[in-house]
Amino acid sequence: MITGGGRGIGAATARMAGQRGFQVCVNYVRDAGSAREVVQDIEAAGAKAIAVQADVADEDAVLRLFETVDRELGPLTALVNNAGILETQMRVEEMGADRLARIFNTNVVGSMLCAREAIRRMSQRHGGVGGVIVNVSSAAARLGSPGEYVDYAASKGAIDTLTLGLAQEVARDGIRVAGVRPGFIDTDIHGDGGEPDRLERVKHAIPMGRGGRPEEVAQAILWLLSDEASYATGSILDVAGGR
Ligand code: NAP
């Protein structure tokens, strides 16, 4: 299950997961067309995939999302908590409660609701066979995003804490929990902040001198999902070009 799997990092992860033999649930919230394209690509690669609309911030929708996977794909083995949003760049003194609620409900509450549903299915404590959760954080959790979106950065700080705490909580239940902290990655999200060409502006501040590609983050997520990472839990991997 990849939340926000229709575009950007989630779409790259979904396609790569399909290539590696996973059956994939591509969750999306609005853009059905992009999610359908991802599903078609996975099917063309010979794996099974479904696209399921659900807002991860809506508890009833999350319940339906996981029930659909139970029914159509069988027992869940892996969750990538990737769905995440940011809003127009502004200083904290301009931010309203509505915006803060949207950011934290999607990025933090959504990830925790999905983690809960995954644990209820995967945990050996509940008769499951174990599994892996990968949370997509951001380098913003370390850097704070001053003048742009401190709210978003703070929500990603919460995601890192979720990874640390949950990893220890379920470590003896057969579940690993890990995180990735991408840096500047070439996706549509920067347009949502009001600056589609943000990578061009900031690339000189990145030690590697360039933004990353979604596939470069997907590789890290797929490694954390794999048995090659069998002793990695509570680990948060920076994929940020040295930043
Ligand atoms: P993106 O291109 O904007 O894609 C976001 C995806 O999340 C879309 O598929 C979108 O669905 C989905 N989504 C948004 N809100 C949702 C909700 N409430 N419920 C379900 N799905 C929802 O973003 P991205 O850059 O790939 O970002 C993916 C993750 O990486 C996010 O958590 C982001 O914070 C993190 N990240 C990104 C960067 C970067 O530079 N790009 C850096 C660090 C971390 P629709 O397609 O239906 O709209």
| Order of the strands making up the biggest sheet | 3-4-5-6
Radius of gyration: 17 Å
Spatial separation of the terminal alpha carbons = 29 Å
CATH architecture: 3-Layer(aba) Sandwich
How would you portray this structure in words?
The chain has 243 residues and is α/β, with parallel strands linked by helices. The chain has one domain (8-239): Rossmann fold (3-Layer(aba) Sandwich). Helices cover 45% and strands 13% of the residues. The protein contains 9 helices and 6 strands; from the N terminus they run αβαβαβαβααβαααβ. A 4-stranded parallel beta sheet has the order 3-4-5-6, with helices on both faces. Strands 1-2 form a two-stranded parallel sheet. Helix 1 runs parallel beside helix 2 (32-44), helix 1 crosses helix 9 and helix 3 runs parallel beside helix 4 (97-122). The protein is globular, with a radius of gyration of 17 Å. The model has no long low-confidence stretch (mean pLDDT 98). The structure holds NADP nicotinamide-adenine-dinucleotide phosphate. NADP nicotinamide-adenine-dinucleotide phosphate binds next to helix 1, strand 1 and helix 4.
